[in-house]
Amino acid sequence: MTNNKFNVKLFNTMAETKTIKVKTDSIISIAEASKILGVSKMTIYRWVRSGKITSVCFGFITYLLREEVERISDGKIRRKT
């Protein structure tokens, strides 16, 4: 992705939204995040719905903030075993 800025809706939970500016190099796809974190895409969507992770939507496409994925990969959200 190029380093462009966009106004996007930020979803912390489905009921709470706000608009922010995001650089495209600071977001990653759900598929990429699932590979990095070693969980299914559905798990990530569940985390988004429950508010455990913040997502960014461009129309109907959902992305994650890179800092959120790094926060999770550092172990701040524990997966159930």
State the main characteristics:
81 residues, single chain, 5-stranded antiparallel beta sheet, alpha+beta
Q: What can you see in these coordinates?
A:
By secondary structure, the chain is of the alpha+beta class. It has one domain (5-76). 36% of the residues lie in helices and 36% in strands. The chain has three helices and five strands; from the N terminus they run βββααββα. The protein has helices spanning 30-37, 41-50, 66-76, and strands at residues 5-13, 16-23, 27-29, 55-58, 61-65. A five-stranded antiparallel beta sheet has the order 2-1-4-5-3. Strand 4 and strand 5 form a beta hairpin. Helix 1 packs across helix 2. The longest helix is centred in the C-terminal third of the chain and has 11 residues, at 66-76. The N and C termini lie far apart (34 Å).
Topology:
Elements: E1 5-13, E2 16-23, E3 27-29, H1 30-37, H2 41-50, E4 55-58, E5 61-65, H3 66-76
Antiparallel strand pairs: 1-2, 1-4, 3-5, 4-5
Helix pairs in contact: 1-2
Helicity, as a percent range: 25-40%
**Elements, N to C (H/E):** EEEHHEEH
Quaternary state of this entry equals single chain
The coarse silhouette is globular
Can you tell me the number of structural domains?
Answer: 1
Q: Which spans of ≥5 residues are poorly predicted at pLDDT below 50?
A: none
Determine the number of helices (DSSP H or I, runs of at least 4 residues).
3
Give a count of the beta strands, DSSP E runs of length 2 or more: 5
Gyration radius from CA atoms, angstroms = 12 Å
Query: How far from one another are the termini?
Result: 34 Å
Biggest sheet statistics: 5 strands, antiparallel
Order of strands, widest sheet: 2-1-4-5-3
Alpha-beta content class: alpha+beta
Question: How much of the sequence is in beta strands?
Answer: 35-45%
**Residue-averaged pLDDT:** 76
